[in-house]
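Q: Okay, next protein. This is Reverse transcriptase from Cladophialophora chaetospira. I've checked the sequence twice, so it should be correct. Can you predict the 3D structure?
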Amino acid sequence: MASSALPETLRSVTSTKIQELKKQRDQYEASKNQIIREVKPCTDDLERTRKLLEGTCRQAGIPVVKDDSSDDDDSHTSASSDLANTRRNQQLFLRQAAKDPAFAPELVAQIHDDLAEHLQLNSVQHEHAQFFSELVTEWLSDTKTSGPGQSEATVMEDSSFESVGRKEMHEQRAQWESIVFTASDVDDRAVQNYLTQLFKAPGTVAKHFEEMETSTRKFCNSLRFTAELFDTDDLKNAIRGLLKTDLLSDEKAAILKSFQHNAAVLQEVADVLNMRFKSLETWKWSTTNGAISVEQRRQLNGKYRVFMDEDILDALLLHAIGMKWAVHFRSCLTHFFESAAWRTAARGIPQTDRDRRRWFLSEDSSPVETVEAKRKEQYAQDYFMSQLPITESEGTRGYDSDEDTGSARKNPIETKQGLLHLLITEALVANHLRPGVSHAVIRSDFEWFGPSLPHGTIFAVLKFFGVDTVWLGVFQEFLQAPMRFVQDGPDGQYHTRQRGVPMSHALSDAFGELILFVMDFAVNCATQSYLYRLHDDFWFWGTEDLCIRGWQAMTTFASVMGIKFNQEKTGSVVFNNGINSEVDRKQSDLGADEGRSLTTDVRLPKGDVRWGFLRLEAARAQFVIDQQMVDEHIEELRRQLSHCTSIFSYIQAYNAYLARFFSNNFGKPSYAFGRDHIDNMINTLVRVQNALFPDQSVTAYLGKLARERFGVQDVPDGVWYWPVQLGGMELRNPLVALYCMRETMRQSPQRILAKCLDAEEKSYISAKVDFDSHIRNYGRPRKLTSSSPGFGEQFMPKDEYMQYREERSVNLYNAYVRLLDVPTEFEVIQTKEITAWLDKLPNSRSRSAGILKSFNSIQPYWKWMLAVYGAQIVEKYGSVQIVDAAQVPLGVITLLKAGKVRWQG
């Protein structure tokens, strides 16, 4: 399951370390048995304890101080460990016990028990270190047997897995080939006309588009005539960025990693790449027997993605060029978004209403913290051109990555989860503000978007936005790659790509985002609202009338560009809130210029609104978990786990599938989702585990494997969950974070909005009192001059006060932000017992250790694990650190865990 290109030298070093560990254990056990033999004949308790102490000191290399010589050296007075000091003290105590009749025998017994326990704990720790190392050896054998480049079928026993692959793999390959190797019939002229109407009609839009077009033309020249594309620092940056993608095979990724630490190799590679860049106009793909190998990789959602196994130098060159273009387009498009060309979703407040609010409420300017301001800020930060990097060092943005980005930007999984929270929050707020007015949601994406993008569309859009003919030629070579499936062998038939873009390339992201930006702007022109989009996965919401106009703009865009909606993922939901249709309403919150009639042939798309395992339920305006989909993935998880040939790979697959994939696709909790959603997640995860392990727990099952394979008995549950850095296996329990969040979630979304309304009532009363007071005392409201228009001494009605809450209300803003919040995780309280355990830990600089010396630095998950299993671990091993980190191959574990899980089939 785990894929890792582990160098043979590291395997050899690890094997040597494990052998040395076994020698140490054997030596320790031999020494321990010798001590026991020496102690056994002793009948006197004091003599037995003295012999045990001397043997223990010899074993640990601690001097035994004799009492029969005045010339004894002072070695015992030198600096030494806590253990050495303890043993020195015990020698003195036993010397006193031999003479002092008042020295209690119970104290001698305590020393004896401490020594015996120490010997036993050392045996247990050595035994566990050996077990841990055997698990690593098993995993190394697993990755060597089923490593990269070898057929997955070589490690499969189930007849349902054949060497030729699974049925759906062949079906998806055939469909992929039918798309990619067939040219589209897109009308280039129609694309040009569509873009011209959208961007070059006389006025503000044309002016700002011209600036963008001019900027791109200048960029074409400046990039092409760059003196040197790479120095060694640029190359290191490109390597880091490329390694973050899922493009390279494990062998090639290992080669790139080795480049990073060799200055001479870096300089040589940079020189070669600069030479290739200077002759970019004649650049061609590096091929083997006329083509580039491509392979299918299965994703957890059951889909297969096709990756090119391209030359490393090609990959580096294209990544560096692609990042520069991606950053350029991000900058230009953001500038356009921030210009007057992009229409705001905020309602304009008429001048009379502004004057009245200034008279009654002393409002001089728009407040900063409003719902509408938050919408624009969040859209710009998280969803506008989210697939493109802001800087070259940021690297490409994967579709499903949940890794820390190292910047203020959310990772893709966090962005997706935030979108779900935003969707429900907007539905709740819409019903709160406009009860009785229907609110609709549209969700869709494009069918085979990356593979199906017509090259004619790509070139037409690039040309329209100012890309010159030289760069269009380079991009044409990039797109029209000759490809051969690796399963067909080195001499198999190959074809040239006629449609679509390669997976995991920065240039592919740049092309796709530029084209989809056109749809973003088309929807904005039609609705004055935002299309929330994550690559080609897009969402739109608002009144039903607004959604119909938005959908019309999307369908027109798709038709012109020659791409199709994915019907399986296309759907809409209307929260009617007591009325039939927003289209039939006589009054609307839309501006007067937006009230044009709708075409009768355009309606909202049919189908459910789904994401992951979630389905949007109209009746409650909430997401619910689709249990039927869960059942299908339980079977797939069972299938994947059954083909893990090592315990560590089993744990890695379990963590990736159950603790990450399931949990992520259930939707991260938020106050908008409420506590019911957390309970639903908990109950479903419990159901999954019961289905996988009907008569036992996962830890019981792993314990059974340990007994059968290694003869290890009675592994405490906590060991399986314990951090690897402390000698555990780091099995993840996804229920812990949910229970921690459930404990802190004390308000329902309905209660949050009800409190907001209460706050508005109080604000209204306070404003009225303030106004009346100033009228009585000064004859005019405060802060207003005699030239300000007056509106009388009767304070404004409450309905008028509440009219522009999205644009003016701080109370609504606070509720809106609260609904978007993810509940913090409850943190268990530090006890004296926990403090004592942590005090024995060495200082650790790495947060990857999970459980650290400083309790306040430990994450809530690990605090929970420490509180639940700490006593169990300490009782058996004497410390929360089960083994000495130097004794076990933790570096290898870190490398193996960092490898991507390659799913079977």
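A: Here is a summary of the prediction. The two ends are 11 Å apart (CA to CA). Residues 450 and 818 are 37 Å apart (CA to CA).
Q: Noted. On to the next one.
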